[in-house]
Design brief:
two-stranded antiparallel ribbon, globular, 2 strands, mainly alpha, single chain, 377 residues
């Protein structure tokens, strides 16, 4: 095998190209719109997995609450879409026309002040990234400046996911409660429920995902990426070298949260609703499993792991819905014990060296055969 192919960076680029070929060409040609829309939903989870590669795989920050940021991005987009669907003409049968239906059901007679800015699409696009990033900044600054990390940070993020879920469900008049924000119809007058719209949104999601993967790769291959790995492996040495470790951790956690929020916004656009069931502890842990199965050190592996686990979830859920959670737990334990570097580690540590060894033997045998003198005539 050529040495260039065994180079890690070239392998990543090959992986990027294969992912792009798969999601942009193969799947759209092979699947009907229903299945393709499912894949589009899976790809929105891949945003979270890519963020986890940054903060968990390369910086050592395990977050069990990434669903919070995924949900915040999704809710920001859902608020804009819901307001567009709640025009006075569409809600004239309500006691208070012009506000979302769940507010009317909860006897709220005026649009809350924090909903008003979401009438603006540019503001919504900014909020999709800024709101989750702000929450991530507050949380990470409070934790990392006090040198709280490791398992304590993971537990706190998990508690945050639980608190956020309870808050959303409890404030039904402002958030839609346990049902979430539903009946989303148009984006700037464009009906997002049609098959044509679903195709377009799928490709937009794919391009956004590939863009975030290249952004993440740029970060990881820069000097910042090397410092992040050093923070993960020898945090005290980095601190003694004069670097402010907390600032690096805060930055990468905010970046991972913003990436997760983009996925949440794309989820809302493609699926047509957002609810607290995508914010809590269970979805947050599932997102960690997606990353672990694919390989927490590999961007390509995280995306592949997300697709495979969700594909398996769909198959199991259709036939054995009550067994899926057990299968998910068993899969996580098996991967951690047998393949701690995930499927990507299996490829780079086992498959490629094995293939390289076979090709070297074949090349040596061929050279030996060519070197033997021809028999005298």
């Amino acid at each position: 095998m050529p040495a260039a192919i065994t180079n890690k960076r070239n392998l990543e680029l090959i992986g990027f190209a294969l992912i792009a070929l798969l999601i942009l060409v193969v799947l759209p040609l092979a699947l009907d719109i229903f299945r393709l829309n499912l894949v589009g939903k899976y790809l929105t989870y891949a945003f979270v997995a890519v963020g986890l590669v940054l903060c968990w795989g390369h910086t050592g920050i395990l977050s069990l609450g990434q669903g919070v940021f995924f949900g915040l991005g999704g809710y920001c987009m859902a608020m804009f879409l819901k307001l567009e669907a709640s025009s006075p003409a569409n809600t004239k049968i309500q006691s208070t026309p012009g506000i979302p239906d769940f507010m009317d059901w909860n006897q709220i007679t005026e649009l809350p002040f924090f909903w008003v800015p979401f009438k603006s699409f540019p503001f919504t696009l900014i909020a999709v990234i800024a709101v989750p990033a702000f929450f991530a900044f507050v949380l990470s600054a409070a934790m990392f400046k006090r040198r709280v990390g490791g398992v304590y940070f993971a537990i706190i993020t998990q508690a945050l996911a639980a608190v956020m879920t309870i808050l959303i469900i409890g404030q039904q008049g402002y958030t839609g409660g346990i049902n979430g924000i539903t009946d989303l119809r148009t984006l700037l007058g464009w009906d997002i429920r049609t098959d044509g719209a679903k195709y377009i949104l799928y490709f937009v999601c794919c391009l956004c995902l590939l863009g975030t993967m290249f952004l993440a790769r740029f970060v990881l291959t820069s000097k910042l990426g090397r410092i992040l790995v050093a923070v993960r492996d020898k945090e005290d040495r980095v601190r003694f070298s004069g670097y402010d470790v907390a600032n690096f951790k805060i930055f990468i956690f905010c970046l991972a949260s913003a990436i997760a929020a983009i996925g949440g916004a794309m989820f809302t656009l493609q699926v047509g609703f957002m609810s607290p069931s995508f914010v809590g502890i269970v979805p947050s842990i599932e997102m960690v499993i997606f990353c672990a199965v694919g390989g927490r050190h590999s961007l390509v592996g995280a995306v592949v792991g997300t697709l495979l686990v969700n594909w398996g979830k769909t198959l199991f859920s259709e036939s054995f819905p009550e067994l899926w959670l057990f299968a998910m737990g068993g899969l996580f334990i098996a991967v951690v014990l047998a393949f701690p570097r995930g499927l990507a580690g299996l490829v780079t540590d086992q498959m490629i060296p094995f293939i390289s060894k076979l090709m070297s033997r074949s090349r040596a045998a061929s050279e030996q055969a060519n070197a033997q003198p021809a028999p005298a005539e």
